Amino acid sequence: MRDERGVTLVELMIAITLVAAIVAGLLFAMRTSLLAYQKTSVRLEDDARAVRIEQALERQVSGLVPLVRDCPALQGDEQSMRFVSSYSLAEGSRGYLRIVEYVVAQDPAGGVRLMMNERLYAGPCSKDPPRVDADSIEAAGKLRYCRMAYRESFPDNMLAGDWVASWDRPAMPGAVRIEMAPADSSSVRLPTLTVNIPIRITRDLGAGYVDDER
To answer: Would 179 be classed as within a structural domain?
Structure first.
């Protein structure tokens, strides 16, 4: 009799089952890797956003422009602040002057959030308190609290001066503090931290500067 080589139906089913198990294991490993990559990407994006928020706040406040007639140098309290800045989110420090407003508002997800308004400076500032509208931008969200404070400035003594809760003086404060804390303190993401921003304009806004040299 002639030898005939081949596989039985049982052997074929076993081979197909093994191949299917190997493919399923590879797909599960790929899915786990993709989920880990997605979580890492989201975390890195959140951390980068927190850094960008702090940088934008620092640059806007540091770019404060002292205007006396049309707008006060800076007005604010614990929940809102308004000033004119040479820095904007859209154009950086290369564009037109902007009226910048910060407003602390309730967050629909819980806690509070810091909202930002930016509009072109085209004349006197409004005397109405800053408000959140359809054009407002969320600078920071999911916060347990957010409040602002202002450091008194004394040119003769840089160490003097207290932090106050509101500012409506003709002179400028020596620094602005924006205190923030995340609503979820157990999160592993980079938290939004308190920002202390010095104002490095030493000009006395109430004094007249005249060149007496002849």
So the answer is: yes
